[in-house]
Amino acid sequence: MEAAKSKIKTLAEVAKIARRKRRAGKKIVTTNGCFDILHIGHVRNLEKAGSFGDVLIVGVNSDSSVRENKGRGRPIVSQAERAEVVAALRAVDYVFIFKDRTPEKWLKLIKPSIHVKGADRKTSQIVERATLKEIGAKLVRVPLTKGKSTTEVIAKIRNL
């Protein structure tokens, strides 16, 4: 897993990498999420996100921000392990862990060309849309894989 660990960076490192890649003419794509108990829906969405550009950077919510967003008892898997699992995927170029509840602050630093979100939310419900407009990034919503979510996996396990 050393190859996966080498993809995990700090936000400052990822911002610097993004600037360098952009100067080299590469299209930067970002996405983010909790990725607590990785499932096929995550893998498909990350592969789709990666297809929109040259470099896919993934923000993984910290343990504290997962708790804020998902509630008590979450995350199931620690932030370090979640980041390493996401980094191990072929479609992912870089991963960083962020502590904020939403991605606006880091989007302003990375300045992607495209930011990808799951289509489980309407565009009007995506909190970072104003930030994306401000930095000139395009928002792309990708369909979710029906019936595949971490919440459903946890419910299934609890019902065993």
Kindly describe this structure.
- With 160 residues, this protein is of the alpha/beta class.
- The protein has a single domain (2-158), classed as 3-Layer(aba) Sandwich (Rossmann fold).
- 42% of the residues lie in helices and 18% in strands.
- The chain contains eight helices and five strands.
- It has a five-stranded parallel sheet.
- The longest helix is centred in the first third of the chain and has 13 residues, at 11-23.
- The chain starts with a helix and ends with a helix.
- The relative contact order is 0.20.
Gross geometry? globular
CATH class: Alpha Beta
- Terminal CA distance reads 31 Å
Strand content: 15-25%
Number of domains: 1
Q: What CATH architecture would you give?
A: 3-Layer(aba) Sandwich
In the predicted model, the low-confidence regions spanning at least 5 consecutive residues are none
Can you give the helix content as a percent range?
Answer: 40-55%
What's the CATH topology name?
Rossmann fold
Quantity of strands, as a count = 5
How can the largest sheet be summarized? 5 strands, parallel
Give the integer mean of the pLDDT values: 94
Q: Based on helices, strands and strand pairing, what is the structural class?
A: alpha/beta
Strand order of the biggest β-sheet: 3-2-1-4-5
Q: Cα-atom Rg, whole angstroms?
A: 15 Å
- N-to-C series of helices and strands: HHEHEHHEHEHEH
Determine the CATH superfamily. Answer: HUPs
Count of individual helical segments: 8
